[in-house]
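User: Hello, beginner here. Can you help me understand these amino acid letters and fold codes? It all follows right here:
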Amino acid sequence: MVAGPEPVMKIIAVTNIKGGVGKTTTAVNLSYLCAAQCGATLLWDLDPQGAATYTLEAEAAEPIPAKKLVSGKREAPEFIVHTKYPGLDVLPADLSYRNFDVHFAERKSPTERLLKMSRSLRATYPTLFLDCAPGISLLTENVLKAADALIVPLVPSPLSIRMLKQLRDFIVEQGWSDLILLPFFSMVDRRRSLHAEVIAASRAEFPVLLDTEVPYWSDIERMSVRRAPLPAFAPNGPAAAIYRSLWSEVSARVGISGAATVPDPDACEPPAPGAL
């Protein structure tokens, strides 16, 4: 009997060398919106600090052994946690993830281990989001090899644009012409002249920059207090609208479509007084 084709799964990585640029906020909100629109979606929290795991209240029931995941002795689906949001599941973070680089280096084809680890997820999830730890490492190379698209939140600063140039050049050097680069400006304060200047200059140099800009709002920071995606606890607020706009751009660029549904505000607890 001839086996059928392997299921196709889009892998979308949210990454940046720098920390504190809104990676987790982006990963949580976009994976939530993807699940609402397209159904089964998995968010893999690769950051040992586990901010996405915490925000979605998806802590693992048992420790997740990074070494056994890399070796194939344990499979990723064994550790998946279902969230209270329909269609959205989480592969939680674990402190052992800090040793991924060591375990990758011990294997053959060390930059392709994450892609191999993700294969057991393909039959269940059409879309996999990766919330990545900051920094440059062997795990970073694994993410770049595995991903179909890279979402890169950028604080409007010269150093952020320098990093984006380095990332673009590295992708070109590796010949990864099918890797979709999706940078966007995050934590934007248009009252600051430097932000406005950097954004204007960068849009001329990088046509791939998404149109949506995420502002530096305290309302967005409340996610970590509410422990929920913005479109879930404040679906009618301006911040949720910004992330819906961002998801619309990302899904169009990546080629993700589904039976569009709107998250039911009544399915989530109402926002606290003064929230959004």
Remarks:
- The CA atoms of residues 84 and 105 lie 37 Å apart.
- Residues 259-276 have pLDDT under 50 and may be disordered.
- The chain has one domain: 10-257.
